[in-house]
Design goal:
The protein is of the alpha/beta class. It is built from 17 helices and 15 strands. The chain is globular.
């Protein structure tokens, strides 16, 4: 992996630490990171203690490639631990919004699942660790050798005071623009690389009666928001939003918010009524819309087996992809992780599941179907399809930044304030009021304190 990636991930650690401490000092230049050594075959994960009974694993993977990927991992789990009954506690909707609301109620009631999904970064550290709701996993990491096959700077993102708290199962990319090649070809439109080009393409598509940009319910509007910010501001200013070095009240943020308002103008009128991201993606697959900005889990939905409620499309022909306008050479990352809750009913069963989730077999079964690349560095590249091959290449060469929507850069309190401001903006489209609310959120809960 290139020095560029390691430097960028180091910057993410600075962002995470700064948000957690609610301080906003200027980020000093980090020393050059050394090149990570080539991955060698890691020791096999230590088998979890013998366990029986049931293990309830809580996630929001209920549709398309997400559900299929989880089922593939369950097959590995059942083979390794036939005496444990796997209980799939998935809750649908909202990229985890619905699931996390249910989870919060259960945690407060002292009724945790045996393990649950969370995003690496501030979602774990600033929420569950801060609230003493999950256990450290020092012994698991020491015994399993898992840390030996993780990118060196991913471990601190799931750690607090040197103690690891979760098992990352994948790496996802947020800033992907999916498109229908036939729609663009018929309209004589080249794939846009800037927002000005994108809006010009949208005008042409709109005149022809085609939806330019498909979008789903509110959380997908935040997903679009973070990527318009990134594509409009550039890496340094985007990162500065989460450290306090970029002024949320400044003119460059105002220009980015104007771009976001314009992008929303070109979305489908029924966005808020769609069940989740899959119906918005299907608008592109069906040729009813030209573009959709969604994470690379959409690849699992587009190309996956129709028997698993996927579309079975041919990559590069029926659908294609490009970086979100303004983000070429940038990898906006997130990572799904699993934890050991305080008070888990079957902690031995949890450790059995985490052993599979961390294993090469488990991650190789899960990720090619899910539409993500392994968190481990030693997975077989040949298992991954055309899109994920490009993700593997870009992860090792692009500048890496962290996702807002998916838990990397902002703690839950700050993200909730942003979400509230965004909800009001979707209703009234008042850019000035939106910018004022975003600045206030940073001052009250984020890095601007």
């Amino acid at each position: 992996m290139s020095k560029k990636v390691w430097y960028s991930l180091f910057a993410l650690l600075v962002i995470s630490a700064t948000v957690l401490s609610a301080c906003a000092p200027a980020v000093t230049e980090a020393p050059a990171a050394t090149e990570a050594p080539a991955a060698t075959e890691a020791p096999a994960a230590t088998e979890a203690p013998a366990a029986g009974g049931e293990v309830e694993v809580f996630s929001w993977w209920t549709g398309g490639g997400e559900a299929a990927g989880l089922e593939a991992m369950i097959v590995v789990f059942d083979a390794e631990y036939p005496d444990i009954t796997f209980i799939n506690g998935a809750v649908a909707g909202g990229a985890g919004t619905n699931a996390r609301a249910v989870l919060a109620t259960r945690l407060q009631a002292g009724d945790p699942p045996d393990s649950f999904q969370a995003h690496a970064g501030q979602e774990i550290i600033g929420t569950y660790v801060k609230s003493n709701q999950i256990e450290p996993l020092d012994d698991f990491f020491a015994d399993s050798g898992f840390a030996d096959v993780l990118p060196a700077t991913l471990l601190p993102l799931i750690s607090q005071d040197g103690h690891p708290y979760s098992v990352p199962v994948n790496i996802h990319r947020s800033n992907v623009m999916w498109y229908n090649p036939s729609v663009l070809l018929d309209a004589g439109i080249a794939v846009p690389t800037t927002w000005d080009e994108f809006f010009a393409a949208c005008d042409q598509l709109l005149a022809a009666g085609t939806i330019c940009l498909s979008m789903g319910p509110a959380w997908t509007a935040m997903h679009l928001f973070e990527n318009v910010l990134l594509g409009s501001l550039g890496v340094d200013a985007y990162n500065g939003l989460w450290t306090g070095s970029t002024d949320w009240s400044g003119p460059e943020v105002k220009a980015a918010l104007d771009n976001y308002a314009t992008a929303l103008f070109y979305t489908n009128s029924d966005a808020a009524t769609l069940a989740d991201w899959q119906p918005a993606s299907k608008l592109v697959a069906d040729g009813d819309a030209a573009f959709n900005i969604m994470g690379d889990w959409a690849d699992g939905y587009f190309a996956g087996d129709p028997a698993g409620n996927n579309l079975g499309l041919t990559p590069g022909t029926d659908y294609a992809w490009a970086p979100v306008p303004g983000t070429d050479g940038v990898f906006n990352f997130l990572s799904d992780s699993f934890v050991l809750p305080v008070g888990a009913k079957n902690p031995e069963g949890t450790m059995a599941f985490l052993t599979v989730a961390a294993s090469k077999a488990g991650q190789e079964a899960f990720n090619p179907v899910k539409g993500s690349i392994c968190a481990r560095t030693d997975c077989d590249r040949g298992l991954f399809g055309p899109y994920l091959q490009t993700a593997l290449d870009d992860w090792s060469t692009d500048t890496v930044v962290g996702s807002l929507t998916h838990g990397v850069v902002a703690n839950d309190g700050w993200k909730s304030k942003i979400d509230t401001a965004l909800g009001l903006f979707l209703a009234d489209k008042d850019v000035a009021a939106f910018q004022e609310a975003l600045a206030a959120a940073c001052a009250s809960d984020g890095a601007c304190q």
